[in-house]
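Researcher: Please translate sequence to structure tokens.
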Amino acid sequence: MESSRIRFGIIGCATIARKVSRAILLSSNATISAVASRSLANAQHFLSANGLPASVRAHGSYEAMVDDASVDAVYVPLPTGLHVRWAVAAAERGKHVLLEKPAAACLSDLDRILEACRSNGVQFMDGSMWLHHPRTERMKEILAAHDFGPLKMIHCSSTFSATPNFLQNNIRVKHDLDSLRALGDLGWYCVGAILWAVDDQLPDTVTALPSLHLNQSGVILACAAAFHWTDHDMIATFHCSFLSNFSMDLSVHGTNASLQVKDLAIPYQESSATFDFTCGAKFADLHIGWSRKPEEVVVQTDLPQEALMIEEFSRIVGNIKNSNCRPDSKWPEVTRKTQMMVDAVKSSIELGFTPVDL
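Model: Translation complete:
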């Protein structure tokens, strides 16, 4: 029923908001009530350009959105530097918060957001869409199987070759709007994927690697880091960059098996996604090949991952709204640990690539 759907307001008309507005329309338990921009004309243009229903209201300020009593939850795709102000304002007015990644410029900023959500009893979730794809659950099942063996090494990359215009003008290279730059925009996926693979167990040390690329203003365009779990004798590495060819790779290696995915953050197709799984492989006789090839695992889905994210968020919000349930603590905890790791990488860079203990 339409009346039972969670009513979303979108704060900001960023490009990613087009994708998420479509996801809301595709979902079974959410609807768009309003869109806000810094001007009414911009909001109205977003409505028409994206074919949103005539019932969706346009607001000419973010203040008007957080004051809109007919909105249950807000999706916030604003630049990272604006997240604290508007996520806190929304939470204080009883609105649930779906916040685009990176969630905050630093852990102290994120904690202000999470405390506002906690104290006002509203749900928080960041916009890491890939976590909601059924492929992600299937990969976790394989990692947890006894024949995979203890994890020993993980590597993740998230890169694209940015245009000169992007490197000069995009908000992701503007220090006042997004101080984390490539580390936040792309590294967030890598750090999140590594934590996901190890069931969110923080490493003992984080060390940035001296493969850092900065622009003339000191903005991070590419960086890498290594993580170490002492008790498990396990390491992980990642590389994120605005300067190299497109990649969204994740490789997870246990003592007896390996898992690889090439399109982690955004699958090649909306309706299905794949990954490779290899168990017990070794060289064939005379080292002329392998004893077995990777098995391709195919996972089908009826909805794109962003719509599944909206449905999961709306399900939780609906339970809070209609059944007096408490917010799900899983999602803010996942975000907070990711932010801790990102902050540690940044600290290691600033300390001359020395290890940072967690």
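Researcher: Any highlights?
Model: The mean pLDDT is 96.
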